Amino acid sequence: MKFRVWFLLVLPGVVNLPAQDHGSISGNPFSTTQDAEAGSRFFRSQCAACHGLDAAGGAVGPSLVTGTFKHGGSDEALFATITRGIPGTAMVGFQINGREVWQMVSFLRSIMIAKAAGEAGGDPAKGAGVFDGNGCARCHTASSGNVGGYTGPDLSEIGSRRSLSSLESSILDPDADVAPEFWTVRAR
Which sequence spans correspond to the domains of the chain? Predict the structure, then answer.
């Protein structure tokens, strides 16, 4: 009985911890335009031989501009692929410092986003209708005025941080890939 009371008293405090980080998104700590430019130089020296100078694919490596990856498309998954490689393939792990890896991830994101921007059509009013109609504001902020919820990431500039395919996947199946800092528990 004492455990049950303790659990009921402590659990609400634990469940609400993610809400304290309103607007934070985990991932790449080196994601500025300057980081992407530095990442471009590292990419060309380390990766272009297999993936092509523009990352659109080469004789050995696949295209990296689609935003769709067999081994995970999150920033963390790209970091792991670059540093650990992919067993059984030509993709070897690279022993380079973490900042340079994150900068390469920023470069890849920048070219994916640029490609997607050219392909993506959209209507901001319809998008706002989908956002409002599905109750997204219960968890997410999506404007510079910080109007919205506190338990999900801030989506105000999400188009500059995520690829088109990643955004589409998150909209169609929002619970499929949730960063741990945004996990919540509903207990009865």
Answer: 33-119
CA distance between the termini of the chain: 16
- Rg (Cα) of the chain, in Å, rounded? 19
CB atoms within 10 A of CB 64: 22
Contact criterion met (CB below 8 Å) for 177 and 74: yes
Token readout for 26 is 């985990």
| Fold of the 33-119 domain | Cytochrome Bc1 Complex; Chain D, domain 2 (1.10.760)
pTM, two decimal places: 0.53
Secondary element (H or E) of residue 59: none
Return per-residue pLDDT of the chain as tens, 188 residues.
444 433 333 333 333 333 333 333 457 898 888 999 999 999 999 999 999 888 888 878 888 887 778 887 888 889 999 999 999 889 999 988 999 999 999 999 888 877 766 666 778 888 888 888 888 888 888 875 667 887 888 887 676 566 677 778 888 888 888 878 888 888 98
CA triple 37-166-35, angle to 5 deg: 15
